[in-house]
Every structure is written in structure tokens, then in C-alpha cells.
Amino acid sequence: MNHKITKEKIRNLLSTELIGNKILCFDSLESTNKTAKENASLPEGSVFFAERQTAGRGRLSRSWSSENGAGIYMSILLKPQIETQKIPTVTLIAGLAVCRALNKSTDDCFGIKWPNDIILHGKKVCGILAELLPSREIVIGIGVNVNNRTFQKDLTDKATSLFAEFGREFDRNAIAANILKELDSLYKIFTAGGFSPLQKEYEKLCITVGSHIRVITPTEEYNATAVGVDEYGGLNILHDGIRKTLDSGEVSVRGIMGYV
Ligand code: BTN
Predict the structure, then answer these.
(1) Is the peptide bond before 197 cis (omega within 30 degrees of 0)?
(2) Which residues does 204 contact at the CB level (< 8 Å), separation at least 6?
(3) Which of 12, 138, 146, 191 has the fewest beta carbons closer than 10 A?
(4) Secondary structure (DSSP) of 131-186
(5) Does the C-beta of 129 come closer than 6 Å to ligand 1?
(6) Any atom of ligand 1 within 6 Å of the Cβ of 20
């Protein structure tokens, strides 16, 4: 099952119009996001895969462990014509695409931890790092722990993989193609009508909404209740009876008792 991700296999599994119109596969990269950013002149929808990353990066300046040949490490180049304040919703769409694809490949047990961690049995199985270029292209980096056996020491209680949870290996080409298919259809809806048509589905899959949470910002920490997600991708919360909206950029959200 431990087959490489190849352009031919992904292309055979895809019937998308935009996402995956150009596919580039590498054995090793520092970071697929870095390579995608360096190649931002390629057409919208181009996808960059690596079998391993030597300097995989996560949100909030964290690193992303990228075991060779085990996970999916891919970045997608997007060029949406949208207002700046709507850009965060693109990453929510990517989370929705991964969640949909994994739920279809297994048995509907994945959820989204706002803004876009994909959670299985209370642990993180996928992370998404979106980066905006000065020339306004967006690179969506997706890391899915598929057949991964090892996790960073500080993450063993928070991270998991499909292999660890289901006790069998999964076909990375099939999962990656399913994610790209879902992203293609969601991105079409998004470019036509924005995030609003997808807001309800996102909220339904988002395990943060309706939960008591701990909000961690660079300057403060406090408890709150998450009540919804707005049309710009912000998290609506109630804190001391006051309603406010968190922006995903600098904020980290935890469950009151732990990671989710
Ligand atoms: C996070 O949860 O902090 C986001 C992790 C994003 C990891 C992916 S793997 C492919 C792409 N390349 C990177 O360097 N990071 C993203």
C-alpha cells in the first residue's frame, strides 16, 4: 500500500476542472508551501506534492512533522478575486474539503476544530497552513497524517493518523484525489457566492461551535463559549456575556479540558 504519490495516479483519479490542472510531485522538499510560493506564476489550481518535507511548517510558526512516504504533504495555488477581509474563508473551505473527503473515505467521524484542524477521536489528523503572497495568490498547504507511525514527542497526546486510528494503511493517492475533488467543487461554489452558502455545513462539522473553549492570544487567555462562524470565517464567541468575534490569524483555541 505504501505507493508513492504520482502525477499519473492522481490525474487518473481526478475529474476536476480547476484544482489539479497541473500536478508536480517531488521526493523531498523543504516545504511544499515554499515551493508553491516560488512558483506562483503557474496556473491557478496547480498542486505541489512531496513525499517528505525537511522543513514542513505549521500555523503560528510551528513545525510540521513530515514522515517520508507516510502522509500527504501538498500545497494548492489559488488566485481568487475576493476582498481581503474574505481571504480567511478560503482556508475554511479547504478544511471543509478535507473533512468531507475523509468522511467519505471512512465512516463519517471527522470534525473540524476552528479554523481548520481536522479531528478524529479527539486528536488532530490534518493541519492546514494558508499563506497570502504580496501579489495576492493564496497557497493552501495541507498535511494529512495517513500512514504515519511517528509523531513529534510534544504532540503524542494531540496528533494521530488514519493508520493509528483504523489499524490499517490507506491509499494516499486516493485520499489526496478525493480532497482535490471536494476542493474543486467547494471552490466553485465559493467563487460564485462566497462563504455564505457553505457556512451551515461548516458549522455543522465544526466541533468548536457550541463548545466551551479556552482562547489563547499572544497577550491573554480566557474561557468563552463558541456560538458560530461568521461570513468572514471569524469565530463568534460569548465571553462574560459579551459577544465578540475571533480572527484566526493570531488566536489559538483549545477545549476547556484539553486539545479539543
Ligand atoms: C498546522 O496545523 O499548523 C498546519 C500544518 C500544515 C502542514 C502542511 S504540510 C504541506 C504544507 N507544507 C508545509 O510546510 N506546511 C503545509
Answers:
(1) no
(2) none
(3) 12
(4) EE-TTS-EEEEEEE-SS-----GGGTTTB--HHHHHSS---HHHHHHHHHHHHHHH
(5) yes
(6) no
**Separation between Cα atoms, residue 94 and residue 111, nearest integer Å:** 13
In this structure, is the dihedral angle defined by the CA atoms of residues 59, 61, 62 and 63, taken in order, positive or negative?
Answer: positive
Tell if the pTM clears 0.85, that is, is over it. yes
**Which of the listed residues 5, 28, 33, 113 should we mutate to test ligand 1's pocket, taking the one with most ligand atoms within 8 A of CB?**
33
C-alpha cell at 192: 460564485
With a CB cutoff of 8 Å and minimum separation 6, the contacts of 125 are 102, 110, 118, 119, 144, 145, 159, 160, 161, 162, 165
Nearest residue by C-alpha to atom 7 in ligand 1? 143
pLDDT of residue 257: 65
Question: Does ligand 1 lie within 6 Å of residue 59's CB atom?
Answer: yes
- Cell numbers describing residue 209: 461551535
**Hunting for cell 470565517 — which residue is that?**
233
Residue 71 has pLDDT above 80, yes or no: yes
pLDDT-derived band of residue 86, with 50, 70 and 90 as boundaries?
A: confident
